[in-house]
Write a structure and sequence with these properties.
Order of helices and strands: EHHEEEEEEH
Structural class: alpha+beta
Radius of gyration: 15 Å
Strand order of the largest sheet: 1-7-6-5-4-3-2
Shape: globular
Number of strands: 7
Helix content: 25-40%
Distance between the termini: 40 Å
Number of helices: 3
Oligomer: single chain
């Protein structure tokens, strides 16, 4: 039996689930926080929030290079769940490998808990890279909507 490599990142926010969900689903809000660092900009190049719809983001680095990630929405259940594929484009070293992201958004008392599960990594290097990326990306979401 093969080992399934996955990332699990959990955060709580003092905002209602609808606010957190909007941060994950509105392109103008995504452009403000959806990157692992304030030095890395994100461009929403394509965004069709529908089952079977596609998205495509460009991550712009300070040295001028850009990497592209794209995917397809598999499940949308506002304001509690998003499931989408995640694939880097060449020349990224992990280009062409389709992984799966599951975002759960749940009310817990007066807070909203977000659990991101990113699975189907081919190796530890890719898994660790995305673990670090999701952790710092959710830190940036905290900066946008508050902890």
């Amino acid at each position: 039996m093969a080992i399934q490599l996955a990332v699990f990142v959990r955060r709580r926010f003092r905002a209602p689930p609808e606010t957190v969900y909007r941060a994950f689903t509105e392109p103008s809000l995504l452009a403000r926080w959806f990157s692992p660092s304030g030095d890395i900009g994100v461009e929403v190049l394509e965004y069709d929030l529908s089952v079977g719809g596609r998205y495509r983001f460009g991550f712009c680095f300070p040295d001028g290079h850009r990497t592209i990630v794209l995917g397809t929405f598999r499940e949308i259940s506002a304001p509690h769940r998003l499931v989408f594929t995640w694939t880097w484009e060449a020349p990224d070293p992990h280009a062409g490998i389709e992984t799966l992201v599951i975002v759960r958004i749940e009310q817990v008392g007066s807070e909203t808990e977000v659990v991101v599960t990113h699975e189907r990594f081919p190796n530890w290097e890719s898994r660790d890279r995305h673990d670090a990326g999701w952790s710092t990306t959710l830190d940036r979401l905290e900066d946008l909507i508050g902890k």
